[in-house]
Every structure is written in C-alpha cells, then in structure tokens.
Amino acid sequence: MTTTNHPDNRQGQLHMAGEMLSFHYQDVSVQGMTVNLQPGRYLQTLADFERAFAENPVIEFYLEALALTGVAEILWLRSKDAQIEMGMEFKETLYNANRLWRHRRFYRRPTQFTGQLQVNGQYHPFQGENISADGMLLSIPSLTAPVLPGTAVQIDTDLLANPVAGIVCWSEVSERDGAVRIGLRYLAVST
Question: What is this structure's pTM?
Fold first, then answer.
C-alpha cells in the first residue's frame, strides 16, 4: 500500500479496533465523510479493515482543522489506487472539540446504561454515565467506599457483546447521592 502526502490541512485521526489511525478526508458533509486511511500497526490491508469493520462498524474520529470530533458508523470500505478508502456516517458530533481531544484520549459519549460490576468477588449493579472506546464512567449505589485505583474488575452490560475486564483508574463517593463513581479503562487481553 502506498501513502499519499496531502499538502493541505484535511487530516484527521480515528480510533478503530483499538488502534489510533491517521487519515486524509476527501469529502465532508453534515452527514458524514469519505477518507483515505493511513495504515496502522495492526490494520494495514483492506482485509484487516474488513475484519475490524465486521466486528464493530463504529469508530471515533477527530478533524483538527474543523475542530470536530464524534462517533461515526462505517458504511463501506474499498481499495482504490493502492489506498484504502472508507465511507462513514456521523452518529454523534461535537464542534469546537480541540480542547476535548487534547485533554482526553477518546471522545466520551454521554449515555445512560445499566449492568453489573464484579469487584473483589462481589457483584454490584451499576448505572453508566458515559462510555468511550477505552473505558466508561459508572455509578454504583451499593458500594459504600471508593475502590482502589488499579483494582481489576469485570463489566457486564448490554452495550458490550461480552463481559470485559477492566481496571479502576479513579474512584470517589459522589456528594450528590452517596454512590461510588468509578472511572475505568478496559484491559486488553492478549492470547
């Protein structure tokens, strides 16, 4: 695959299948965009991208020149002129996002969801506050004290196809309702 250098400022980044990739965008509308992808460490060929697309068609993106970030759904992939092209439809967007993207690693989608968290061998029902490609923020009313950062947990929710392992990044007792709030990151499991 060849990489084309584009002299203009139509560059962006996206997070797909656990990898941060750069791209050049060709067409942008209020509904979506078409991009030429730069190969990554693991996603290099059209077949690699097609496998990732089949597993999860949702990506997170950032367009610095437009100060736009959000979530999009991949509609199609193809190889053209030794480049991989991707068409996507925006699902959620946030304008003036330069500060957000620089201070946070991933876009966090505010959404309410429920599930169970296993921590220290016990299950606790939770309410989710937001979710990203890298982790989630949970509120757990049944806990009475913060959970130590670095504690391994298991998360089970309908938003994820299977239960996943995570690690607590921070934890606090909410002054608003007394529930323990936990910021956690998914653990990558290698086989």
Answer: 0.53
